[in-house]
Design brief:
alpha+beta, five-stranded antiparallel β-sheet
Amino acid sequence: MSSYLFSPENEPEEADSVTLIDERGRALECYVENSIEVDNLNYLLLMPVDLPIVIIAWDEDSEDDEEFSDAILLEDEEEIEQIFPDAKAVLAELDLSLKYTAYSLTVSGELPPIEDDDILTLELEGEDEDQPLEPEELQFLVSFYHKEQRYSIYTPLAPLLFLAKANDNGKVELVSPEDEKMQMILEELLFEEAE
């Protein structure tokens, strides 16, 4: 669902951005990176205007050695809401503004330069246990404590992309890239983007 009406006559450069709205009414402003028409429907490749972030909780039992400690990607809405004020405060010290946006937490502001020591590689498990683990590289921003639990905030080095379609009345809605047809459309959008 979106508050933006997509016009197929607009090239992606002209259609600056769309605003995605999640089921809780939170907004996420996205650039239209690319678009393609398939079966009289316009599909869009979207990238958030602000930088997405992830929050990782560290296993308390192994906090002395981060290299061997367990990292838990924070996805629980209630826990995020509890630590949000602390996370916002520590990011403000870096001149970054934390936003509770739809589909991902984001920050606006200028990131510190990337240093090799500040990159964490997480191996994320897919939904299918037979799938190999997918490594994701994250840039460290800051750590903080909340009720004796240590958290770290990272931003992914790879861009966060969304696949959406503009329906007949121009409203934009997210689609899942899981089925075969959507995967082909996504590949086409990414291929054209790379050219």
